[in-house]
Amino acid sequence: FKVTFSPENEGQLTTSGTGHIRFWKMARTFTGLKLQGQIGKFGRTELTDIGGYVELPDGKVLSGTEWGNMLLWDGGLIKCEISKLGGKPCHNGAINECFMEEGELITAGADGFVKVWDFETIDNADFTGDRGLFEMEPMSEIRVGADGRGKSLGKTLNREATGIWDAQDAAGAIWKLDLSLE
Q: Cβ atoms within 10 A of the Cβ of 42, count?
């Protein structure tokens, strides 16, 4: 589903798709450069398709799941699963997009919601209790469209429009969203 080169770590990239996430590093060999991949290990967490993820500045990766929670990956292993308070899913359905923008993490789900999360809280998250969940609430959220079926999200290219994003719903309509917390 997705391939990205690391904005922070040269020679590192991440891929994701049906039932997997893979972390790649460029290695210098006697025949030249080669990619060496490490498959993400889900451990006790249910296997999931991963459509949306974002690499954090320290090399950890935050991804979405089909059931609407987020997974924080560190070194190819899940550090913790993130849900809302009370074990409720972060989104009601798959998380399609994850972005980091100006110290905030942004997720867009198939439920039609775009949510803004505190980066520091997620970056320092660790599981608590037997379920391995870290619970938190978004800083803000906005619903895209009346039918609540989100498709994709992207940053507006207008440099003067800080906090403005474009979203597309499942019906093909384009929405302009103000995600600034001011």
A: 15
